[in-house]
Write a sequence for this structure.
């Protein structure tokens, strides 16, 4: 009977880990599609937008967003997902390249890098943000200017909420709940 419980726990952990990797892969694919559309739009018209990103709502931090999620996840998803928000004075935790699930499986390199920024806000310690950055010519150099601890303004469309039960290697202070945003921009 002990062995059965142990196997159930192990299977559950493997399943949850696989779901997280699949979710990360889907988010990466969404970012690649968005970046590709943005690149095509810029190539065709320079300033033309490939889609309307909608109005931007200024929020003081992620505390209210995460509190909504903690109180009722489904209501928070309905309220926040798809909403474009802007946050001033976000603290940079990490800027890194994202990779798609197929890239990771095949070892193929991407022709256009997909960057994301991990950040936190001063109004919550358990919740942070991850914003996928829109690709543009020059982003490869721009991402080199962001440093851990730097204050920036972040704008993006809320895509989903993630729970991370671990800290990243580079960031032991990484929050366990993430508000994931797409179509992101950063201003210093």
């Amino acid at each position: 009977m002990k062995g059965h419980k142990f196997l159930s726990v192990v299977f559950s952990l493997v399943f949850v880990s696989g779901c997280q990797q699949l979710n990360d892969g889907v988010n990466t694919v969404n970012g690649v599609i968005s970046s590709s559309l943005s690149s095509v739009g810029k190539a065709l018209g320079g300033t033309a937008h490939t889609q309307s990103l909608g109005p931007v709502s200024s929020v003081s931090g992620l505390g209210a967003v995460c509190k909504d999620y903690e109180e009722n996840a489904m209501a928070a998803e309905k309220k926040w997902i798809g909403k474009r928000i802007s946050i001033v004075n976000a603290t940079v935790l990490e800027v890194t390249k994202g990779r798609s699930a197929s890239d990771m499986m095949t070892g193929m390199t991407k022709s256009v890098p997909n960057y994301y920024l991990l950040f936190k806000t001063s109004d919550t310690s358990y919740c942070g943000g991850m914003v996928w950055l829109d690709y543009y010519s020059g982003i490869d150099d721009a991402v080199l200017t962001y440093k851990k601890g730097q204050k920036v303004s972040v704008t993006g469309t809320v895509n989903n909420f993630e729970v991370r039960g671990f800290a990243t290697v580079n960031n032991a202070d990484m929050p366990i709940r993430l508000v994931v945003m797409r179509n992101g921009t950063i201003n210093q």
About this structure: The first strand starts at residue 56 and ends at 59.
